[in-house]
Amino acid sequence: MTSAQIAFGLGEHEEAALALLRSEWPLAEMPSSVNEPRFWTMTCLGFSGLAALAVVANGFRGAQAADDPRPYRPVLEYLVVDRRVRDRRLGRRLARHVLRQSLMDADEVVVEVERERVGAVRFWIEHLQCAVASDSEQTEARVVRLRWPPAGQ
Asked: Which residues contact 111 (CB under 8 A, 6 or more apart)?
């Protein structure tokens, strides 16, 4: 197993994080601070770059009183592993860590995956036991919304 370290926040990795994100989604930008993004970075032994990045935003949508804190509804928007370090189970390790950490402040985590990325959808369902959200919870035709933990866990 590859030795890896996961850190909360971007630290000195902000430029590397954007580059890694854009390696999968060329037009991607870092999430706006309005969405209260939380970042996790992963570095690994023997690899000089940023090995992986996860971004969880606050997906709360709804009315609230101006003085009340905004409820937290974690939505994992991005989990990217550098192509040069794939197939080392780093994505699974980072995903488990991020899901557990996000669940500390919520009842569930929503994972959004582009529908055309069939392998990615399969990854979340098979390796992390995510469940496909109900039809009424699906928000966009191009995105599959999954939930973790699945109901009953």
From this structure: 75, 76, 124, 130, 145, 146, 147, 148
